[in-house]
Predict the structure.
Amino acid sequence: MSDMQQFWSLVVIAGALAVGVTLLSLERARRRREQLQRQFGPEYERTVARVGDVTEAERELEERTRRVEHFHFHELSPVERARFATRWNTIQAGFAVDPAVAVTATNELINEVMRARGYPTLSFEQRVADLSVEHPLVVEHYRAAHDFSGSVFNGVADTERLRQALVHYRKLFVELLHESSSVSAPPAPLRRSLAA
């Protein structure tokens, strides 16, 4: 084999390797994207839209996952679940008397349940990012509840906005309270009060 033939053979081999590496890289990126879309659901598209770049958004979602992997989550005991459910029912009953106080108390209850489950309760945005890893389908309810309840702090709360905040908080509350399939059904009063 002449030097020229060896050269062209090496060029063809190098080209084939480059194409192979490129195809593997593209396949890996496609699989990563699909896995993140499955894991995060609507939160994936929301993050891509907010960040404006798919690769950067995927990095952010992967960083969220890595961060949450270091948390020490645990199930609530039956006593804790019952205590939180009782507080929820009390807060909900108080909504008719003072909706703003009820929504503020609900926000505090959500934070307490998150702490009890093992979530750090830092800034709202960090709580949302952390929740999105394990609870991507209810994190949007948390955002909506926060937006609606923000009217309490801005002094422009109306009862309908506060009711909507409570409805959204309820979806997150139930998810956090009864996360695993091994957890029993909610107590009867909570089941009735949450049947909306």
About this structure: DSSP finds nine helices and no strands in the chain. Confidence is low (pLDDT under 50) at residues 180-196.
